[in-house]
Amino acid sequence: MQNLAKAIILIGIQGSGKSTFYRERLSEYVHVNLDTLHTRNKERLLIEECLENGQTFVVDNTNPTKADREKYISAAKEKKYQIEGYFLQSILADCIERNKGRSGKACVPDKAIVCTSNRLEMPSYQEGFDKLYFVKIEHGEFVVEEWKAL
Hints:
Layout: E1 6-11, H1 18-26, E2 30-32, H2 34-37, H3 40-53, E3 57-59, H4 66-78, E4 82-88, H5 92-100, H6 110-119, E5 131-138, E6 141-146
Parallel strand pairs: 1-3, 1-4, 2-3, 4-5
Antiparallel strand pairs: 5-6
Helix pairs in contact: 5-6
């Protein structure tokens, strides 16, 4: 029997809108975010709890590389979860500009955004995603499109 729970992985550099997208579109699901959990151990424990209880969860981190995403995908596949990925358009200049509007620890150095951008690998179905989407911001609104392989 197929599990109806989903593991949703957000992908994009800092300032691409991942957390706002989560709040606006996915907030009914468990939020897995290192900015709020602070440690990988707390992240792991929360994901394990979701997997044991069949809860849908959203990994709201940058997840720039296939290797970063693989640990979430493999754990969720093992529990027969549907795996969805949302790649948020990551135009460097736009992300740096949005980041400037943040305060405190939420505002990261421009150098960190550039570094993540340089590591960013486009997601693919070969990684194990069941569904992939491309998300862009137009006129202040999120526009979600089916993934088209590049």
